[in-house]
Design goal:
It is a single chain. The two termini are 32 Å apart. This protein folds into two domains: 62 residues, 434 Repressor (Amino-terminal Domain); 105 residues, Sandwich (Jelly Rolls). Helices cover 27% and strands 28% of the residues. With 181 residues, the protein is α+β, with helices and mostly antiparallel strands. The protein has a six-stranded antiparallel beta sheet with strand order 1-2-3-9-4-7, with no helix packed on it. The chain has a three-stranded antiparallel beta sheet with strand order 6-5-8, with no helix packed on it. It is elongated, with a radius of gyration of 23 Å.
Length: 181
């Protein structure tokens, strides 16, 4: 990361936290003058200073080192979505890719199809929204019928599966963090 980008990131996080340079400098064990120089890009903070600033802002150190993204890399046009078939189930990736800690996709189940042969679990936390239903959800041994517009939060390691008993395709928009397919 360029020094100017680091300076801007520190300034941005400080302002978002509603802190003055004097307040942050004091909490980070730096002089106000040094923090001012860092924020202007005229001084490069040591790793220890970065750790102290991060701690004072209650943010992970890696936040300062993350590269900025080009907005065009973050936008996924409908016609450009990645399509996947996994065990006969059609998935459409809504997220740009799998490099993030959060992935969002649309799962389409044809008439009579199920997401798996039996309920499965994964380490990710999941939130699902039924776009087209109804769909049967088995969650921790209990069966629920979800209609279009219904949603569910599935905790990590909770056994679950979806089954389409209707005569039409159903679709579910879901997000998982961390990604687990």
């Amino acid at each position: 990361m360029e020094q100017d980008e680091l300076a801007k990131k520190i300034t941005q996080l400080r302002k978002e936290a509603g802190r003055t340079q004097t307040q942050l400098a004091q909490d980070a064990g730096l002089t106000t003058s040094m923090l001012n120089q860092i924020e202007k890009g005229k001084a490069t903070p040591s790793i220890q200073s970065l750790k102290s600033i991060a701690k004072a802002l209650d943010t992970p150190v890696f936040t300062f080192l993350m590269e900025q993204h080009d907005a065009s890399e973050l936008i996924v046009r409908k016609e450009e979505r990645k399509q996947m078939m996994i065990d006969g189930i059609h998935y459409e990736l809504v997220s740009p890719d799998f490099t993030s800690t959060l992935v969002t996709a649309i799962m389409r189940l044809s008439a009579g199809a199920a997401s798996s042969d039996s309920p499965l679990s994964h380490r990710g936390e999941e939130v699902a929204f039924v776009m087209q239903g109804p769909i049967e959800l088995t969650l921790e041994g209990t069966t629920h019928i979800l209609q279009a517009g219904d949603s569910v939060k599935i905790p990590p390691f909770a056994e679950h599966m979806y089954r389409n008993h209707s005569q039409a395709e159903v679709s579910i928009l879901f997000s998982v963090t961390p990604p687990a397919f």
